[in-house]
């Protein structure tokens, strides 16, 4: 064959090397699957740790800083949650523009600095300001970890991974109140904040040395007002994103109602404050178990079948507790079983709702996670704060949160799914 002929030249020209396949799953983060789960859970645990470890310290904080009204002490929780919720709107767009690591690591540093600054506080208002800053720093963790998972996984795989992350993460609320009580046995309440700052520095080191950037430069979005408006429009044009975000808002309202009220439920209603950490841990164990089950079965049965059924269950358990509370104080064990069932159901609903809302928004995962987070978490914190302030020495406000918020969420889901529950062809 003549090498100068077109055919000869084509035959003599070596075939170009194929482009490398894009990395998917935990390979994109540069670490193994189990380390990916562990790191994501450890980072996310900052949020639960910042809330749950505070619960046994609320009386000591109130006494030390002159807070007379017990309900006002709940602001230590709600202010953190508000800062956490509102700041999420910043970190999604920033991480979509600059990458995940360059935004995540400074956010953790802000959290750690605010934690350590509490050591020098001598008035309640300054404490609340620092808790607000803590929440802002923690918001970077929640948003960017979710975006990292979405960078690496999608659909039911994302729901499965988030369930495993949530399962490991649930070890924190199981242990956090007991850890808080243990710290208070040997030190003043400020030592809890020193513990939080040290944990933040530890997790920042793990992230800095092990986690690779999961958002390639080619996939980043320019930071511009027009781009932000477009991204927000994408979120609000999605029926699924809007409906399930509103549903998540109501779910978090029930969750925060439980968190801000439960210490007073044990102490004021039943006079069993010493058992609070154990009771809280049992509820958290139930949520962890349901998250494990969700991670195992979500690919087989689908996000909607599991989450819709669990939402109905949560609403029903809350309604039973409400009826019992209207006729007096329910038996301590009955009330705890019903509250645990409500929280167990929440564990099956929350991650699936978030995954359904995020599914059509993978191309703007950071911003989408921000919008969903700021609406659901901030709105949930406000609703939970309202229920907490309504605490009147009975279980009626808390049971109304589970039954009422659950019922409204169910109506929203019905509208979103056009009257069809449990299954959808694309799920």
TrEMBL record:
<protein>
    <recommendedName>
        <fullName>Bcr/CflA family efflux transporter</fullName>
    </recommendedName>
</protein>
<keyword id="KW-1133">Transmembrane helix</keyword>
<feature type="transmembrane region" description="Helical">
    <location>
        <begin position="75"/>
        <end position="91"/>
    </location>
</feature>
<dbReference type="GO" id="GO:0005886">
    <property type="term" value="C:plasma membrane"/>
</dbReference>
<feature type="transmembrane region" description="Helical">
    <location>
        <begin position="333"/>
        <end position="353"/>
    </location>
</feature>
<dbReference type="Pfam" id="PF07690">
    <property type="entry name" value="MFS_1"/>
</dbReference>
<feature type="transmembrane region" description="Helical">
    <location>
        <begin position="275"/>
        <end position="293"/>
    </location>
</feature>
<dbReference type="InterPro" id="IPR036259">
    <property type="entry name" value="MFS_trans_sf"/>
</dbReference>
<keyword id="KW-0812">Transmembrane</keyword>
<dbReference type="InterPro" id="IPR004812">
    <property type="entry name" value="Efflux_drug-R_Bcr/CmlA"/>
</dbReference>
<keyword id="KW-0472">Membrane</keyword>
<feature type="transmembrane region" description="Helical">
    <location>
        <begin position="394"/>
        <end position="415"/>
    </location>
</feature>
<feature type="region of interest" description="Disordered">
    <location>
        <begin position="1"/>
        <end position="21"/>
    </location>
</feature>
<keyword id="KW-0813">Transport</keyword>
<feature type="domain" description="Major facilitator superfamily (MFS) profile">
    <location>
        <begin position="36"/>
        <end position="427"/>
    </location>
</feature>
<keyword id="KW-0997">Cell inner membrane</keyword>
<feature type="transmembrane region" description="Helical">
    <location>
        <begin position="33"/>
        <end position="55"/>
    </location>
</feature>
<comment type="similarity">
    <text>Belongs to the major facilitator superfamily. Bcr/CmlA family.</text>
</comment>
<feature type="transmembrane region" description="Helical">
    <location>
        <begin position="161"/>
        <end position="183"/>
    </location>
</feature>
<feature type="transmembrane region" description="Helical">
    <location>
        <begin position="189"/>
        <end position="209"/>
    </location>
</feature>
<dbReference type="GO" id="GO:0042910">
    <property type="term" value="F:xenobiotic transmembrane transporter activity"/>
</dbReference>
<dbReference type="InterPro" id="IPR011701">
    <property type="entry name" value="MFS"/>
</dbReference>
<feature type="transmembrane region" description="Helical">
    <location>
        <begin position="365"/>
        <end position="388"/>
    </location>
</feature>
<feature type="transmembrane region" description="Helical">
    <location>
        <begin position="127"/>
        <end position="149"/>
    </location>
</feature>
<dbReference type="GO" id="GO:1990961">
    <property type="term" value="P:xenobiotic detoxification by transmembrane export across the plasma membrane"/>
</dbReference>
<keyword id="KW-1003">Cell membrane</keyword>
<dbReference type="InterPro" id="IPR020846">
    <property type="entry name" value="MFS_dom"/>
</dbReference>
<feature type="transmembrane region" description="Helical">
    <location>
        <begin position="241"/>
        <end position="263"/>
    </location>
</feature>
<feature type="transmembrane region" description="Helical">
    <location>
        <begin position="103"/>
        <end position="121"/>
    </location>
</feature>
<feature type="transmembrane region" description="Helical">
    <location>
        <begin position="305"/>
        <end position="327"/>
    </location>
</feature>
């Amino acid at each position: 064959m003549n090498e100068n002929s077109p055919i000869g030249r084509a035959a003599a020209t070596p075939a170009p090397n194929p482009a490398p396949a894009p990395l998917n799953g935990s390979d994109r983060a540069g670490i193994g699957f189990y380390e990916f789960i562990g790191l994501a859970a450890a980072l996310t645990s900052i949020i639960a740790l910042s809330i749950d470890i505070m619960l046994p310290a609320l009386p000591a904080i109130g006494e030390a800083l002159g807070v007379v009204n017990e309900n006002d002490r709940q602001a230590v929780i709600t202010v953190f949650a508000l800062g956490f919720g509102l700041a999420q709107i910043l970190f999604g767009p920033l991480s979509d523009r600059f990458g995940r690591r360059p935004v995540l690591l400074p956010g953790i540093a802000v959290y750690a600095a605010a934690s350590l600054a509490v050591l020098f506080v001598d008035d309640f208002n300054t404490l609340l300001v620092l808790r607000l800053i803590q929440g802002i720093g923690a918001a970077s963790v929640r948003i960017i970890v979710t975006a990292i998972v979405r960078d690496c996984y999608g659909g039911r795989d994302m729901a499965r991974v988030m369930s495993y992350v949530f399962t490991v993460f649930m070890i924190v609320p199981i242990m956090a109140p007991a850890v808080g009580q243990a710290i208070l046995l040997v030190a003043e309440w400020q030592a809890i904040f020193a513990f939080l700052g040290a944990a933040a520095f530890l997790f920042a080191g793990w992230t800095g040395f092990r986690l690779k950037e999961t958002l390639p430069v080619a996939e980043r979005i320019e930071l511009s007002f027009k781009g932000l408006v477009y991204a927000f429009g994408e979120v609000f044009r999605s029926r699924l994103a809007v409906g399930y975000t509103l549903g998540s808002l109501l779910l978090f309202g029930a969750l925060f109602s439980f968190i801000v009220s439960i210490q007073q439920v044990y102490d004021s209603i039943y006079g069993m404050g010493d058992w609070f950490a154990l009771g809280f841990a049992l509820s958290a164990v139930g949520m962890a178990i349901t998250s494990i089950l969700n991670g195992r079965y979500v690919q087989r049965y689908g996000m909607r079948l599991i989450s819709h059924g669990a939402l109905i269950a949560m609403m029903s358990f809350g309604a039973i507790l409400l009826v019992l509370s209207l006729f007096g104080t329910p038996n301590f064990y009955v009330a705890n079983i019903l509250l645990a069932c409500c929280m167990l159901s929440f564990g099956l609903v929350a991650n699936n709702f978030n995954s359904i809302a995020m599914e059509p928004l993978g191309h703007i995962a950071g911003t989408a996670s921000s919008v969903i987070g700021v609406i659901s978490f901030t709105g949930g914190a406000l609703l939970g704060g309202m229920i907490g302030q309504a605490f009147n020495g009975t279980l009626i406000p808390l049971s109304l949160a589970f039954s009422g918020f659950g019922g409204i969420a169910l109506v929203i889901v019905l509208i979103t799914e056009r009257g069809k529950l449990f299954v959808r062809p694309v799920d």
